[in-house]
Amino acid sequence: MKIAIHHRPNSFSDHWIKYCDENDISFKIVNCYDSDIVDQLNDCQGVMWHWAQWDSMAILFARQLTFSLEQSGKKVFPNSSTCWHFDDKLGQKYLFECLGVNAIPTWVFYDKKTAYTWIKETEFPKVFKLRGGASSENVKLVKTKNQAKKLVKRAFGKGFNVTNKWNVFKDRLHKRNREKSFSSIIHILKGIVRLFYKNYDDRMRTRDKGYVYFQDFISGNDSDIRLVIVGNRCYGMKRYFRRDDFRASGSGLKDYNHKLIDNKCVKIAFNTAKLLKMQSVAFDFINHNNNHKIIEVSYSFVSSKFPGYWDSDLIWHNKNSSPQEFMIENFIKSLTNSDIKSEIPVFQD
Q1: % of the chain with per-residue pLDDT over 70
Q2: Rounded to the nearest 5 degrees, what angle is found at the Cα of 48, between the Cα atoms of 275 and 58?
Q3: Within a 10 A sphere around the Cβ of 61, how many other Cβ atoms?
Q4: Confidence (pLDDT) at 169
């Protein structure tokens, strides 16, 4: 058995390669951007590739490559069920509604007239989001109908930059105030440059337009809950909002004390991960009248070490653990426990 790993430094692949080296797992490094990637995988039963939402090249073909490899009988991480709605809040809206997931109500409109009619009839505040974006960079609290109308006009006009540079820069300043390290100063300097210079991925991404997305605003909270499910393990943290803000994602203010997290929320996370058939999923929960509602999901996340985890029986294990290492452990098990032959019929004359 051999697996392929696309290596991107400072990503999940660092952990996967280390795991293979330490456990004598046969693997090879491949480049999923190469035109001959299918040939590169001929001697492998599966491939693991941690692609990111900001990667303009991966966005073009990662989902299509994944589906195609699955049709040939290859195992892939992330597989189609795990990644097709990655960084796509529109896709998640429809998925949640079709499967009855307990998520925050959302509204999406594809024409200006319908959006204006809804604004006239609904109550504010609401949360405006673009379909993609990490660390809350494309998230705004809309307090009035006039604010909402302006966003609708722009959505069906010039549109929005996929990367909100000012929000990203503010997050860098926030990190500097929190950590006060030399690396955070370098981070700020790079942020200043990026305010005036578009990197490759920014230049390749088109503006978001032709739709508008609103979500209910849940008031009365100072934090949300991030739960990560990988197989039969759940890792968790409480994430606090930025100062004078309603957003927790990207704040860097987190607490890993598992006693702060309701076991009911953990149970919902396990059940929803099974329903969505995802190999890896990070859920963001918000509390609404003692009811844990899902904000959004992602197969990818930042944290790589947790002080413990819950098993599927909701029993806490007080043991340092890495979700990324468990990913590859589960992936290898999926190869050994299944028929890896191609499911595509071969027709002969």
Answers
A1: 83
A2: 90
A3: 14
A4: 54
Flag the least confident range among 128-137, 196-205, 293-302.
196-205
Beta carbons of 49 and 6 less than 8 angstroms apart = yes
Q: CA nearest 88: which of 296, 284, 291, 245?
A: 296
**Higher local confidence (pLDDT), 336 or 37:** 37
Q: How far apart are CA 28 and CA 13, in angstroms?
A: 12
pLDDT tens digit string along 267-296? Answer: 999 999 999 999 999 999 999 888 999 999
228-261: burial string, b at 16+ Cβ within 10 Å, e else: bbbbebbbbbbbebbeeebbbbbbebeeeebeeb
Contacts of 191 (CB under 8 A, 6+ apart): 168, 169, 172, 173
Per mean pLDDT, which range of 82-86, 182-186, 298-302 is the poorest? 182-186
Residue 113 tokens read as 């007239």
The torsion angles phi and psi of 30, rounded to 5 degrees, stand at -125, 170
Distance set, CA 244 to CA 119, 145, 241 (Å): 26, 22, 8
- Helix/strand/coil for 135: coil
User: How sure is the predictor about 162, in pLDDT bands with cuts at 50, 70 and 90?
Assistant: confident
Residue 179: both structure tokens together = 């950590």
Q: Indicate if the pLDDT at residue 345 is higher than 70.
A: no
How many angstroms separate the CA atoms of 60 and 165, rounded?
A: 22
Residue 143: CB partners within 8 Å, gap ≥ 6? 124, 125
Count Cβ atoms below 10 Å from residue 10 Cβ, excluding itself: 6
Is residue 226 a contact partner of residue 283, using CB atoms and an 8 Å limit?
Answer: yes
DSSP codes, 19-83:
HHHHTT--EEEE-TTSTTHHHHTTT-SEEEE---TT-HHHHHHHHHHHHHHHHTT-EEES-HHHH
Q: Is the peptide bond before 125 cis (omega within 30 degrees of 0)?
A: yes
25-55 as b/e: b if 16+ CB within 10 A: bebeebebeeeebeebbeebbbbbbbbeebe
Identity of the residue numbered 284: D
Q: Distance of CA 228 to CAs 6, 125, 291, 292, Å?
A: 22, 29, 19, 15
